[in-house]
Amino acid sequence: MLSRRAFIKSTALLGCSAAAHPLLSTIAFAEAPGENRLVVIILRGAMDGMDAFQPYGDPNLRKLRRKLSLGPDQGALDLDGFFALHPDMAGLMPLWQAGELAFAPAVSTPYRDKRSHFDGQDMLEAGTGTDLNLIQQRDGWLNRLLQNMPGVQSETAYSVGLEDMKILDGPAPAKSWAPQTRFRLGAQGQRLLQHVWHDDPLFRAAGEQAIEIVSSGVGTVKEEGGPTRDARALARFSADRLNGATRIATFSISGWDSHANQGRVIGRAMNRLSDAILTLRDGLGKNWQRTTVLAMTEFGRTVRENGSGGTDHGTGGAMLMAGGALRGRRAYGGWPGLAEQDLYADRDLMPLRDIRAYAAWALHDLFAVSRDVLEQSVFPQLDMGDNPRFLA
C-alpha cells in the first residue's frame, strides 16, 4: 500500500500546479518541450570533490592529505595527467573515455562560512544568492525553469524518491513519486475513497492526483538487490519516465558527510552515484545521447585531512557532469591551486565559478531558455559569464 507520507508527497506538487493554472494559461500544454533531457542529482552531505576527482598533479596535495586522495599510486584512475578518478567510481571510466563524463573541480553556490548542510542544500536547490533570507528561498530553480518553458505539462518534470526535493517546489506543474511505493485500488475501492474524501478539499485534490499518476502507468521498479539498489531503482524509474513524456528528473543520493573514515564512508556513496549514472545510461538507450546529468552538492570539504581520516565542511567542491549530450573528457573551469595563499579562509578550496552558472548554461543550451530569464528569474542576480560549452 502507498504510505501516507508518499501519498501526500506524490500529490503536493500537483496541488500547487492546479492553484497556479492562471499563471500557465498561455502555455501550449499539448506540445512536448523538445527531445533534450536533464537529470539533476543532489548529493546530500557535501561530497569531497578533491577525493572524487583527485588533483594528484598539484604538488601541495600530499602536504595536505596523507591518507586520502592518493592518486594513481593507490588505485585512482588517471584522467588527464593531473586529475584522477576515485577508484570507487571506476565504473564511470568508460564514460570518460567516450567523452560522456566531465567535471568542474572548483565550484560552489554563494553560500559561505556558516557550513550548515541544511542551509547549504536549501540554497543549492533554491538557486538563489545570499541576498535573500533562507526562509524566503521557498521555490526551487527547476520549478522556476518550468514556469519559463513552453509546452510544460505535469509530465515534464519528475521528482523521484521519498526525500523532499525543494529544487522542484513551486507553482509550475511537476510530479513526484517514489519507485518503492505501492498503490493498488480497484474501481469500487476508488469510488469509495472518492466518496470519503469528497468533503475534504485538500485530501480530495491529493487523492485524485495520486490516482491520476497511477493511472498514467507509473509502476514499481524491479531492481536486483545489493548495496546500490536504491540508487539504481531511482535511476531506473527516472529513465523509464524520461523515455516517455518526462524531460526533467531529479533525485538525491545521500551519504557524503565524511568527517571520519572517509575512505570507507565516501566509497559507498560513490558506488551509488556511479551505479545510478550507469543505470540511467542503460535505461535511456538511444535517448542517452540527448541527456545531460548534473550531480551537485551543497558545498565542498576542507583541503586538509583531519585526524579521524576524514574531512570537514568546506567551500569549493566539484560538480560532476555526464551524458551523451556532453562534450566530456575534460575538467572545466580551471584549478585554483592548493598553495596556502590560494585557499579560501586558509582551509578550503577556492571556488572559481558559481555552480549555478553551469546549470544555467545547461538550461540555455538544452531548452533555449534566454539568458535574461535565467539571470533574472531562474537564478536571480546570477552573472552567467561566458558559456563553458560543455554540451556537444
Structural account:
The protein is of the alpha/beta class. The chain folds into 2 domains: 25-179 and 227-377, Alkaline Phosphatase, subunit A (3-Layer(aba) Sandwich), CATH 3.40.720; 184-220, no CATH class. The chain has 12 helices and 11 strands. The protein has helices at residues 4-19, 49-52, 61-64, 93-97, 117-126, 141-146, 187-196, 201-215, 229-242, 262-284, 355-367, 371-378; strands spanning 37-44, 53-54, 77-78, 84-85, 101-108, 157-160, 175-177, 248-254, 291-297, 317-322, 353-354. The strands form 2 sheets. It has an 8-stranded mixed β-sheet with strand order 7-6-8-1-9-10-5-11, sandwiched between helices. A 3-stranded antiparallel β-sheet has the order 2-4-3. Strand 3 and strand 4 (84-85) form a beta hairpin. Helix 1 (4-19) packs across helix 8 and helix 11 (355-367) crosses helix 12. The longest helix has 23 residues, at 262-284. It is globular, with a radius of gyration of 21 Å. Residues 1-32 have low confidence and may be disordered.
Topology:
Layout: H1 4-19, E1 37-44, H2 49-52, E2 53-54, H3 61-64, E3 77-78, E4 84-85, H4 93-97, E5 101-108, H5 117-126, H6 141-146, E6 157-160, E7 175-177, H7 187-196, H8 201-215, H9 229-242, E8 248-254, H10 262-284, E9 291-297, E10 317-322, E11 353-354, H11 355-367, H12 371-378
Parallel strand pairs: 1-8, 1-9, 5-11, 6-7, 6-8
Antiparallel strand pairs: 2-4, 3-4, 5-10, 9-10
Helix pairs in contact: 1-8, 9-10, 11-12
